[in-house]
Amino acid sequence: MDTFTNRQRLQKINHHLLEMVKGNFSLRIERSDKKDELEALAAAINFLTEEIQESVLHHGYKNPDNIFALTDQMVFILNRSYRILQTNNSVKRFLQFKQRDILHNEFEQLLSADSLKNWRETVEKLEEQQEQEARLRLSFKTEKGLLLPADCKLIFFRGNGVLQDKILVSSSHILPSPKNYELVSLRNDEFSKKMIQPRALHKKHHLYSSDIESIRAAREFIMDHIQGPVPLIEIAHSVGINEYKLKRGFKELYGSTVFQFIKDQRLRKARVLVLYTNKSISAIAKLVGFKKGNHLSREFKKLYGHSPTQLRILNIDHYTNNFNTDTSN
Amino acid sequence: MKKYIENNFASFKMDRGILHIAYKENLCLSLKAAKEVVSQRLKIQHGRAYPIVCDMRGIKDVTVDAKEYLVTEGSVLISALAMITKTPLSLLYTEIYTLETPPITIRRFTDESRALEFLRPFVELNDF
User: Fold this and answer.
1) Nearest residue on chain A to B74, judged by CA atoms?
2) Is B3-122 in CATH node 3.30.750.24?
3) Which of A114, A272, A326 to mutate to test the interface with B (most CBs of B within 10 A)?
4) A283 to chain B: nearest residue by CA?
5) CB–CB of B103 and A227 under 8 A?
6) In a mutagenesis test of the B interface, which of A32, A38, A47, A57 is the best target, namely the one with the most B β-carbons within 10 Å?
7) DSSP conformation class of B75
8) DSSP-derived secondary structure letter, A83
9) Who's near A315: CB < 8 A, 6+ residues apart?
């Protein structure tokens, strides 16, 4: 029995890897409650897929001349018993089910076990409160048993109208691939001229794998030294590349300059210290790597729209200490 | 005297200068969960850095944005971190976390008493 289950788990991993080979990074392997090596493998592959998906999207937005992001939607129309009355063609595309195989079935059968709870709670809330719309994140099961997570919108049509007493569920998906770029540029020449051509004129600077390794090492060096001064020349020397290559490559790989990255990291840390501790602003500044409190305040306001002191006032309730004392131990 | 609190995602116990954090069973650590855990931890610490022993065994899943948050915001005010891992799954998440090397001393353990032994030098004297 166990061998059979493991074979099924391995089959799902296999299906998922094949989808990745095809360039589909939207799917995930459904997770079980086990904590063994196979589960760790599935978790690692899911994590990697999520990272690749984010990275592909990042490059898609940054370099639309290479890869373009196109959105698509799955649409389900349900009756009041939550059975599927109609779908669009994207359902077949994303979940591989033929329409006739899912029509009149319960919508819940398409959802993962984790999503089912979320779906039922949302529907119940909508029914109780007589609200019309809700947003929720659902994971759909594909025909091969993989998962497709998606941000969804749920609309209850009440009152009179063509869709009276029907429920519409739509899910949004971003598709990054050269094929999509071609599709978009063919369909909309004007749009592609505006969005794609000016970028295409930029000269390309390709990074070699050794450069990528050095730039990743530079990021680690920065993270290790973020509390003190981190001059560019020191970072470059520590990883054995020149400053010019570090500056260009870092922006190419991470989408921000070295200085912006350092500043953002420090400000993110400062923000939680402002919110959840009583430390003075100057003490927080020193702790996260700013020389002075007023420097931190200035940069903080630029990024978050309010000073650290203003943020503390806005979130005064976060200071309530609800840490219980258990004297019985 | 021990202090204990728990939220939807983890339990927190301060004992002789070491903060014990244990993630709840079958936890899917999303960004929201990571934020709750970090804010609860910082409220307990009152602005001081502490050595922390973190039991990772309950974690079922971690999202990429949650990991990013834990590596950046989640690394403040930690003088040393001992992570308890006993299953291949918890070992994976520990490795993913340490891969980005937050600027703190981190060690992995399967045995809690050895983890506490490792953290003891980081405890400030007046916390005993």
Assistant:
1) A269
2) yes
3) A272
4) B47
5) yes
6) A47
7) G
8) B
9) A275
Q: What is the pLDDT of residues A213-236, one digit of tens each?
A: 899 999 989 988 888 888 999 999
What value does the CA radius of gyration of chain B take, rounded to a whole number of Å? 13
Give the model's pLDDT for residue A161. Answer: 80
Number of domains chain A contains:
3
Instruction: State whether residue B72 sits within 8 Å of chain A by CB.
Output: yes
Residue A231 makes CB contacts below 8 A (sequence gap 6+) with none
| Residue A127 CA: distances (Å) to CA of A58, A105, A165, A167, A244 | 38, 21, 12, 12, 60
Same domain, A109 and A22: no
CA angle A136, A172, A141 (to 5 degrees): 70
Q: Provide the residue range defining the domain that includes A249.
A: 209-317
Residue whose C-alpha is closest to residue A272's, from B62, B77, B94: B77
Closest CB to B43: pick one of A35, A268, A321.
A321
With 80 as the cut, is the pLDDT of residue A176 above it? no
Cα Rg of chain A (Å, integer):
25
By DSSP bridging, strand A28-29 and strand B2-6 are unpaired
| Domain-located, residue A246 | yes
Give the position of tokens 């899910």: A171
Residue A317 at interface with chain B, using a CB cutoff of 8 Å: no
Tracing tokens 């610490």 back to the chain, one arrives at B45
On whether any CB of chain A is under 8 Å from the CB of B106, the answer is no
Which of the listed residues A26, A44, A65 is the one where a domain comes to its end? A65
Q: What ipTM is given for this predicted complex?
A: 0.90
